[in-house]
# Entry
Amino acid sequence: MQVKEIRVQDLNPQEFIQEKTKEISSLVGEGLAINALSGGVDSSAVTMLGHRALGERLKTYFIDNGLMRQDEPQEIVSLFKGFGVPVEIVEAQENFFAALKGITDPEEKREAITQTFYKDVFGQLVKKSGAKYLLQGTILTDVDETVAGIKRQHNVFAQLGIDPQAAFGYRIIEPLVELRKDSVRKVAEALGLPESVYNRMPFPGPALSARVIGEVTPEKIKLVRLATAITEEILGSSAAFQYMAILHQDRVTGMRDGKRDYGFQIEIRCWDSIDARQAQPTKLAYETLEKLAQRIVTQVPGVVSVTYNITSKPPSTMEAI
Ligand code: XMP
# Structure
């Protein structure tokens, strides 16, 4: 199934919003729909579109998969409460860690996240709520990379020949699938979302599990979460498209207090990009890199090495798995 792109120069955000609101209303009819909000620009735009179209007949959940950044669930819920959109937190940490246990292959990890999210967690929610539709913020770049076999993005089905109704028992509506990130930001702004949302840095569906190389465990997520908080604090004022900390699987010999310390490695990536299809590493000041290394080796337990990725996409991708 080919998706036709609406390019940013051809997009009229208000007309787009009207059209999509109508489409969602007529598809869902008098029934219920549900959606998962992560706080990213894609799921935030979809939440607002769905809310306009369906009002209280849209049930919005924040799935706490245990893989989110520091304080993220509570911050997102209170932000949307301020927009008049109630969001319920679903505690699903155990489901995701159980599904990820023992898996080291990147695509198998992505598949485990997809199955847990759509079949297990959403399957239950749909059954409980009686909703027939799931609204989600898949965008064109997600589809492209999945179809090209580069990376199985967690939220792509129809283009892979998977029928969500048969696989999971509900239909999926994807109002943003003709757009890329730059256009989604325009739609989000036109929907009245604040700049902190429409210009929010992208964060992948598989969350911090995309930033742990090798097996994902609660302990490793804790380390990468801490390194992420430091990285986001230090690079927060940069104009980069996206920045992240990655925990490597291999350990290296380091030294601490005059003793050998066989410790962890953190890799920092910081990207300049327009739409995530191509990206270049940001030419960060050397002092900034030193500050990152210093803070991470002193504040993240067991880390003895911090590196900076200087490879463009392609051949790199932006996330590590
Ligand atoms: P990659 O790593 O493919 O990332 O170069 C391109 C952009 O997509 C984000 N990303 C994802 N977003 N589900 C998403 O919704 C996913 O499974 C996923 N994987 C990567 C990534 O953060 C970057 O902005």
Notes: The pocket of xanthosine-5'-monophosphate is lined by residues 142, 145, 151, 153-155, 202, 204-206, 210, 242, 276, 313, 317-319 (CB under 6 Å).
